[in-house]
Amino acid sequence: MSKSIFDQNAVDEVIARVGKLNVADKAIWGKMTASEMLAHCNLAHQGILKAPKADKNGGFKKWVTKLYFIHWMKEFPKGARGPGRFDMKDKVDVSLFEEEKSKFVHIIGKYAKVEHQLAGFHPRFGKLTHKEWGIFVWRHVDHHLRQFGL
User: Fold this and answer.
1) What are the residue ranges spanned by the domains of the chain?
2) Do residues 100 and 21 make contact, with C-beta atoms less than 8 angstroms apart?
3) Which of 27, 62, 125, 137 is most buried by its number of CB atoms within 10 A?
């Protein structure tokens, strides 16, 4: 069974892992700095938690992509690219590292306590169920923490 960010143990694990992240840490792959990665996650996760219920499915291509990434793969591949609006490259000063890290911990902590069913629309996967959002968020965060060797 896939891990879910809605599980308090998963949240605790993520917080412990990000606690080891330092401003000077270099990505093993990709081009983001640690500050940019945290800001990227923060922006995405703020949107996920506030997203309205999806009123459309997204079509066959998004459904197949969702099956592949959410249900068949164990982790996101190193070269996976997200939507451009979440691209933080060269948009976050390294001096904001501690602020972004603190925000990250705060936002991630909200997932295990969420009181509503997430059912928003993902730009690459279409409509996701609450369970699928839990798996997606876990894999997204895990992907970026692995990116920095955590």
Assistant:
1) 8-19+54-147
2) no
3) 137
